[in-house]
Amino acid sequence: MLWAGAHAGKWWNAGRAGLVAALLIAAVGIVRGRRTVVLLAVGVFGASWASLSWSVAPVETGDCGGTVRLVDDPRPAGRGTAVVVSLDGVRVRALAHGPAAWRLAGLSAGDTVDVSGECAPSGTYADRDRVNHVLGVMKVARTGESRPAASPAHRAANRVRDAVARGVRRMDADDRALFMGLVIGDDREQPRAMVDDFRASGLSHLCSVSGQNVAYVLALCGPFLRRLRPAPRLLCTLAVIGWFVVLTRAEPSVLRAAMMAAVIAVNFHRGSPRNARDVLAVSVLVLLLVDPMLAHSVGFALSTGATAGLAWLSRPLGERAGLPGVLAATVAAQAGTLPVTLLVFGRISLVSLLANPLAVPVAGIVMLAGIPLAAISAIMPDPVARLVGLGITVPVRFVAGVARVCAAIEPHGIASFAGWAAVSVVAALWVRRHRAVAG
Asked: What is the SS3 assignment for the chain?
């Protein structure tokens, strides 16, 4: 209900009055014990809360400038550079060409720089920008002095990102781009052909940092965390999770994974572990209350859907249908993302049933060992860095090869329909046989 309400907030203009009404409706529902009334109040609250974000006025047209803070990392934009910056607390998308573009391209998220140029509303991409809290565009004419990030978390994250990049400096450009995507979700240098292959094969989620990456980082820190007393261990665990969010630039899928990890850590500290469904529900509620615009994020919806599929369907598919663990997880995640995939992309990948069991375990090895190996390689001479890069290249190229081959054999049109029909028949026969054997 909160998610649906946040979606409706684009067309709901109640604002703060709607928030008050939602609280009153919720109070009535709680007093009378009417769950449906409480759910209605949650929907009204979500719509009213989101409407406040939609109602913020865009920036005005005219000259602007000052000291800005980079919200994310600069990206190539044609022959220039684009980056979201915070100017006097307002987010704008800065576009630069020439020397100004070169200066911006050398900065990282959290850094500050003096700029001047011309601001205007977003125009064609206003809705997409508004979802990311961007209220306009800025054509940068000049850049001045730049300074490193003031936040210790940003400085530490940027140093690690730089070290990882230096550690794989001897890898081929495409291999390096995929490695950065698998480990820290940095897909800025991935060529278009690689992006298309991963989308067609149903493996694009591997380059979107998720719970698997968070789990690997906590596993690396596990030997240190286990030595601490309960309260310091909880605080350090939450600090590691927060730092990883900064490292991976707080993408929607990262926020979902990090919030779930934080909820699990808190419940473990309290001695009251909860199942994955409860943890997912609490995490999504908290995130939507903090930022209702996440309801419009495709990445957040896919991440949440895949996790919901795993939480609700993975075990039944393994126990009742007799599917192997990896295949059961793949089918469950696919089922969870099915509504969003069909609505946004208009189709679902058939070969993903083959690509995911092949690529995910190998990609997991890269995610687990990637950061420490690259960080060590960064301080080694080039011959050693080349050897480390070779060791990382093998699994990275395997994942890329799976994506490329599966994308090439992905059926389309009638062939895709026939393929899914055949999969459905085989699945039905498998379930029937499994039940007969179990009986």
From this structure: CHHHHHHHHHHCCCHHHHHHHHHHHHHHHHHHCCHHHHHHHHHHHHHHHHHHHHCCCCCCCEEEEEEEEECCCCEEECCEEEEEEEECCEEEEEEECCHHHHHHHCCCCCCEEEEEEEEECCHHHHHHHHHCCEEEEEEEEEEEEEECCCCHHHHHHHHHHHHHHHHCCCCCHHHHHHHHHHHHCCCCCCCHHHHHHHHHCCCHHHHCCCHHHHHHHHHHHHHHHCCCCHHHHHHHHHHHHHHHHHHCCCCHHHHHHHHHHHHHHHHHHHCCCCCHHHHHHHHHHHHHHHCHHHHHCHHHHHHHHHHHHHHHHHHHHHHCCCCCHHHHHHHHHHHHHHHHHHHHHCCCCCCHHHHHHHHHHHHHHHHHHHHHHHHHHHCCCHHHHHHHHHHHHHHHHHHHHHHHHHHHHCCCCHHHHHHHHHHHHHHHHHHHHHHHHHC
